[in-house]
Design a protein that fits this description.
about 250 residues, binds FE2/S2 (inorganic) cluster, 3 domains, 7-stranded mixed β-sheet, Dihydroorotate dehydrogenase B (pyrk subunit), domain 3, Rossmann fold, single chain, binds flavin-adenine dinucleotide
């Protein structure tokens, strides 16, 4: 059954939480009520033909929070929206993380892959947040994860905050304590996290990114190769994902 629709969301709060990273609070009770962790919004940007996909970072009362980094023209224009502006949003889209009741999860985020883990972590009975950044200045949302009751582990590439290195190091130290792992971030990170989970026999869900057109499974722009029951098959990141079981993903294309 189609649950998504086009909604108008009011930008009620806006801040730049790190250089070129924006935190928007968008108000619309109707869409907030049905949005699940790991889903995304497809946001129309004035002057651009294609919408831009941005993950749901959090949902509180009648608001959805998104956190995005300026990458090109679309996200730059989005960052210029003003408080009180109405954003044209198609959503909520995609299949999010499957968080089972009573289980313990590690939520692993790398860089701009961190935001979608916050609402997801809030759903878990017990949550470890394992967050990786380039350096201390790029670190975002650490206080939010703490406030959400997560046990927090930080890794930075230059060692300026938390441990020096990649998220896989702190994750390896706690993997025995969790029932499953959810991850979002760059492909090499996801691949390494998936491999660590495989070795330790832990289920792993990963959120993938692909360029998108329609966002609803109609245009084939976002195809990704997966291992199906009858051999390799292409799935849509927008409709079948963005969250997939790591074992399903054809990591080497
Ligand atoms: C499911 C999903 C969730 C996402 N969640 C977030 C998020 O929470 N925060 C965040 O900062 N970014 C997120 N992204 C990435 C974000 O969509 C891109 O950075 C953005 O579309 C870039 O648009 P642009 O016009 O600024 O850049 P340009 O590079 O000028 O974009 C040109 C075209 O390529 C597409 N594109 C470029 N980079 C990406 C990318 N990495 N993924 C998908 N399409 C891309 C654009 O949508 C546009 O159609 C997400 C992507 C997907 C697929
Ligand atoms: S974006 Fe059109 S099928 Fe996924």
């Amino acid at each position: 059954m189609k649950k998504y629709d086009v909604h108008m969301l009011e930008l009620v709060e806006k801040s730049e939480i790190a250089k070129n990273i924006f935190d928007f609070k968008l108000k619309n009770a109707q869409i907030a009520k049905i949005t699940e962790p790991g889903q995304f919004l497809h946001i129309a940007v004035p002057g651009m033909v294609l919408r831009r996909p941005i993950s749901v970072c959090d949902v509180t009362d009648d608001c959805i929070r998104i956190v995005f980094r300026i990458k090109g023209d679309g996200t730059r224009r989005l960052s210029e929206a003003k408080k009180g502006d109405m954003l044209d949003v198609l959503g909520p889209l995609g299949n999010g993380f499957d968080i089972e009741k009573g289980k313990t999860y590690a939520f692993v985020g790398g860089g701009i892959g961190v935001p979608p883990m916050l609402y997801s972590a809030k759903r878990a009975e017990k949550a470890y947040a394992v967050l990786g950044f380039a350096n201390k200045d790029a670190a975002i949302l650490c206080g939010d994860f703490k406030e959400a009751g997560c046990e927090l582990f930080i890794a930075t590439e230059d060692g300026s905050f938390g441990v020096r290195g990649f998220v896989t190091e702190p994750l390896e130290n706690i993997i025995d304590r969790v029932d499953g792992v959810c991850a979002c971030g760059p492909i090499p990170m996801l691949k390494a996290v998936a491999e660590l989970c495989r070795k330790n026999g832990k289920p792993c869900q990963v959120s993938l990114e692909e360029r998108m057109g329609c966002g609803i499974g109609a245009c084939l722009v976002c195809a990704c190769k997966t291992h199906g029951e009858n051999g390799d098959e292409y799935k849509h990141v927008c409709k079948n994902g963005p969250v997939f079981n790591a074992e399903e993903v054809a990591w080497n294309g």
